[in-house]
């Protein structure tokens, strides 16, 4: 941990990192030290947008169509190709499943954007 890093709000030394943000448990302030310092490389990070199988940018609330049959892990269910999913939510997941949605007949699940196309 960086011993010089202090909370910019309350000047507390008891801060911890959560992903790219630093958090102060005393005043609940969250900040990115690279952006606070004006680091240009942090602002010019690569495009973090989520794209479907055809390269279209996806947004929260979009409707998508599954492009191939997908087995549901841990069950005998299958999401058939051509299934339309409404009202997706984009999430940041380390395992590649970056779409959270609800599919009729199956329920809530996460999908990879490479297996859907924008409807």
List the helices and strands and how they pair.
Blueprint (H helix, E strand, L loop, with lengths): L15 E3 L2 E3 L6 E2 L1 H4 L3 H4 L6 E2 L5 E2 L5 E3 L3 E2 L6 E2 L4 E2 L3 E2 L8 E5 L3 E5 L4 E3 L1
Antiparallel strand pairs: 1-2, 2-3, 4-5, 6-9, 6-13, 7-8, 10-11, 11-12
Cα-based radius of gyration, to the nearest Å: 20 Å
Main beta sheet, described?
3 strands, antiparallel
CATH C-level label of the largest domain: Mainly Beta
Beta-strand content: 25-35%
Query: Any idea what the CATH superfamily of the largest domain is called?
Result: SH3 Domains
Level of helix content? under 10%
Domain module count: 2
3D shape: elongated
* Number of extended strands: 13
Contiguous helical run count: 2
**CATH architecture term of the largest domain:** Roll
Task: Trace the largest sheet across and list its strands.
Answer: 1-2-3
Q: Which parts are unreliable, with pLDDT below 50 for 5 consecutive residues or more?
A: 40-45
Protein name: PhnA protein
Domain Protein YjdM C-terminal: 50-119
Domain Protein YjdM N-terminal: 6-32
InterPro entries: YjdM (IPR004624), YjdM_C (IPR013988), YjdM_N (IPR013987)
Care to describe what's here?
Belongs to the YjdM family. It holds the Pfam family Zn_Ribbon_YjdM. This is PhnA protein. InterPro entries: YjdM, YjdM_C, YjdM_N. It comes from Skermanella aerolata. The structure is a single chain. This protein is mainly beta. It folds into two domains: 42 residues, N-terminal domain of TfIIb (Single Sheet), CATH 2.20.25.10; 56 residues, SH3 type barrels, CATH 2.30.30. The radius of gyration is 20 Å and the shape is elongated. The N and C termini lie far apart (46 Å).
